Automatic annotation (TrEMBL):
<dbReference type="InterPro" id="IPR002645">
    <property type="entry name" value="STAS_dom"/>
</dbReference>
<dbReference type="Pfam" id="PF13466">
    <property type="entry name" value="STAS_2"/>
</dbReference>
<dbReference type="InterPro" id="IPR058548">
    <property type="entry name" value="MlaB-like_STAS"/>
</dbReference>
<dbReference type="InterPro" id="IPR036513">
    <property type="entry name" value="STAS_dom_sf"/>
</dbReference>
<feature type="domain" description="STAS">
    <location>
        <begin position="13"/>
        <end position="117"/>
    </location>
</feature>
<protein>
    <submittedName>
        <fullName>Anti-anti-sigma factor</fullName>
    </submittedName>
</protein>
Length: 117
């Protein structure tokens, strides 16, 4: 898949919606980075990225996914992912980045009292 088709706009008002059709891996990371840069230049507000047709394959892919969020923040935009598979969700959870997942409720672990009676 070329850089021009890696992310395809899917519409929306006030929200830029895109779909990733390639894996987040070392082979596609450069194309995905370029596409994210182009999308982030093209407006304001939330960028909602559907990754239901993709998955994180390797460390470079995970860095590309997280880097897209950081790039959006620097551009004054919010970026969230939707349609993440179980593995990608687990990776983001372990990295403390579940806030990047659109529609995933933030669940905090139960608080433990440290007071000793």
């Amino acid at each position: 898949m070329s850089a021009l088709t890696a992310l395809a706009p899917v519409g929306g008002e006030g929200t830029t919606r895109v779909r990733v059709g390639v894996p987040f891996d070392i082979r596609h990371s450069a194309d995905l980075r370029q596409e994210f840069v182009a999308v982030l230049r093209g407006g304001g507000g939330l960028v909602l990225v559907d990754i239901s047709e993709s998955t994180v394959i390797d460390q470079t892919g995970f860095a590309t996914l997280v880097g897209a969020h950081a790039r959006a923040a620097r551009a004054g935009r919010r970026l969230r992912f939707t349609g993440a598979d179980e593995r990608t969700t687990r990776l983001l959870r372990r990295a403390g980045l579940t806030r990047l997942l659109h529609g995933v409720e933030q669940v905090r672990p139960p608080r433990r009292d440290t007071a000793v009676s």
